[in-house]
Amino acid sequence: MCGIVAYSGTKSATPILLNGLRKLEYRGYDSAGIAIHSDNTIHIYKEEGKVANLIDSIGDYENDAVHQQCHVGIAHTRWATHGPPTKENAHPHGAGFVEPGGSRIALVHNGIIENYRALKARLEAEGKVFLSDTDSEVLSHLIEFYYTDDLAKAISTALKEVQGTFGIACIAKDQPDMLVVARRGSPIVIGLGEDQTIVASDASAIISHTRQAVYLDDNDVAIIRGGKIDIKTLDAKPVQRDTADIDWSEGAAEKGGYEHYMLKEIFEQPTAIRNSIRGRIDLDRGTSVLAGLGLDSREIVDLQRLLIVGCGTSMNAGLVGEYAIEDFAGMLSEVEQAAEFRYRNPIVGSKDIVLAISQSGETADTLAAVREAQEKGALVAGLVNVVGSTIARETGRGIYLHAGPEISVASTKAFTCQVSVLLLIALKFARSRRLSREQGIKIAEEINSLPELVERVLEQNDAIAKIAEDFVKFDNMFYIGRGYLFPVALEGALKIKEISYIHAEAYHAAELKHGPIALLEESMPVVALLNAGPGMEKTLGNVEECRARKSPVLGVISEGDEDARAACDWVIEVPQSSQFIATVTSTVALQLFSYHVARLRGCPIDQPRNLAKSVTVE
Ligand code: M6R
Question: Using CA positions, which residue lies closest to atom 11 of ligand 1?
């Protein structure tokens, strides 16, 4: 949550900071600001709303001497936690005000300072004046309080007193060539360019400048000056961090002619899934090759349970994984919302493997669940998209999705790639346990065909857009499904509510009769997952019950299924397949459906209100 960019180099910092903010806007978009060092002064600019407002308010920075002569600066795009999204609460926060304007230091912060009230009371007693409601401003005053002539030392001293999480970037008025960054719980990536260093909270703000990056570990403090980077612990012990290559292409993080990132990412799914499964299917042996898990067949057989943790869309993908693990491998599997897992003293041990699923690899609750599982002695692996992210590094073992950057706040390609890889995990576990080679080959072939099946769903984009026209008027919706298609109902409902603001609830189809049916009427449409397979007849029966109560029904059905077609008011057909494959194809159909409903309702699709891409706070 929140995006940080910082620059130190030979070029003018302002355009690089603003451009970086545009790339990171998906992380938070209720206010934005920059602080630059120029003319022996720290100049702070901030504005409520989107980065475009900030750019407008700064004006003609290309021809302004203040901006031409600034070579060090910090920037932030905010997702409000403490205090409303106002200009005052926007970052950077200055501290130690000096005449004729400007501050002794300026800071941008991502994370939450949990003990900010106590620190604020102490600093107010020392005479510090606060201009915002934020916890972050407390940190800027605390650093300034300790600052004499060593900025890194003041930062370390302040951070030792802080409880909570932070990714920060800080500059000081009397250190015109110095930038100091630090992290605990919120990512900081340092991009190593020629004659310049670009810091960001994620790689998408860096890739147009360099592919070489260093990822800070928790409690690292990095001092950046003149292209030199010194990394120390909070106790000032020098440490070395490896340099990694960022393999995302620049175009991957652009819209590429699509009206929205979400639509682009929906259409990228055939390629993304291909990349996720490439080299991981052994058709001949009817199994999958997942070296990153670091488990041989004997170790897999010894495992008793696969416990999956995640949040939101990643958790929904995990549910498909649970069904597949039990279905293919006959192995116990459970999915738990990561926040619930971390706080309920879970029973896990050395016979369990805990799989943390996260697109960003930074979700606070999923990361905490990883740490709790490790504490309890379980084997922990990650299923993560963002290379070098905290969950990927802390789990040490696992599988990267290779889905490419997902910029739209609503997750799409991450889900289908997660499901594809989960099916591969289920296949591998199954082959080590009870599945024959022939059965394995059949499943492997079906997984291999996923990209092509998704392409066939995408061909229906126009037809789905037409159906969406009829749904613009509704304020509420139900989604129902059974078995493998229950998680698809959950994901479909999540997608429509987050981008179109239509209230949607997903139920196991059998659950309708246990209460929700009371709400069925003409104004409550139902989306039914009806792909042929186990339970379909029963869901068809539920559809009849809905229509008997005048609820209009949109069915996602298998191609050519005339019974299902006859039972619904509208249908979207997906290719005939096993139900575990239909989890992907049906989800793609519902992604397009949600996208078009939201577009027709005029919603800000890529950046829905109140949301942020990566939830790094509890
Ligand atoms: O980065 P993660 O996969 O850990 O994120 C988990 C959820 O925050 C995320 O899937 C969220 O639910 C999406 N906005 C859904 O579209």
Answer: 312
Structural Rg of the chain based on CA atoms: 25
Retrieve residue 109's tokens: 């912060």
Residue type, 588: V
What is the pLDDT at residue 39?
Answer: 86
User: How large a percentage of the chain has pLDDT more than 90?
Assistant: 82
Q: Return the ligand 1 atom nearest residue 386 CA.
A: 1
**Nearest Cα residue to atom 10 of ligand 1:** 313
* Index of the ligand 1 atom closest to the CA of residue 411: 16
Residue list, ligand 1 pocket, CB within 6 Å:
311-314, 358-360, 363, 366, 409-411, 494, 498, 614-615
Output the pLDDT for position 532: 79
Pocket test for ligand 1, best of 314, 419, 497 (most atoms within 8 A of CB): 314
Give pLDDT < 50 ranges for the chain.
Answer: none
Q: Which pLDDT does position 101 carry in this prediction? A: 60
Q: What is the distance in A from the centroid of ligand 1 to the CA of 129?
A: 38
Question: Following DSSP, what letter does each residue of 258-304 receive, concatenated?
Answer: -SSHHHHHHHTHHHHHHHHHTT-EETTTTEE--GGG---HHHHHH--
Instruction: Please tell me the distance from the alpha carbon of residue 313 to that of residue 309, in angstroms, as a whole number.
Output: 11
Distance CA 381, CA 46 (A): 41
Residue 82: per-residue pLDDT: 81
Tally of residues, the chain? 618
pLDDT of residue 98: 66
CB distance 235 to 216 below 8 Å: no
pLDDT, mean over the chain: 93
- d(CA 310, ligand 1 centre) in Å: 8
CA of 442 to the centre of ligand 1 (A): 32
* pLDDT tens, position by position, 261-291: 999 999 999 999 999 999 999 999 999 999 9
Could you list the active site residues? 2, 613
* SS3 labels along 392-449: HHHHCCEEECCCCCCCCCCCCHHHHHHHHHHHHHHHHHHHHHCCCHHHHHHHHHHHHC
Q: Which helix (H) or strand (E) holds 213?
A: strand 212-215
Which pLDDT belongs to residue 185? 85
Measured distance CA(582)–CA(557) in Å, rounded: 9
pLDDT score of 96: 87
Centre of ligand 1 from the C-alpha of residue 612, in Å: 9
Name the DSSP class of 473.
T
Whether the CA torsion 126, 127, 133, 134 is positive or negative: it is negative
Closest by CA to 581, choosing from 386, 320, 337, is 320
339 CB-side CA count, 13 A: 8
> Which residue's CA is the closest to the ligand 1 atom numbered 12?
312
Question: Which pLDDT belongs to residue 617?
Answer: 72
- How far apart (Å, rounded) are the C-alpha atoms in residues 168 and 309? 28
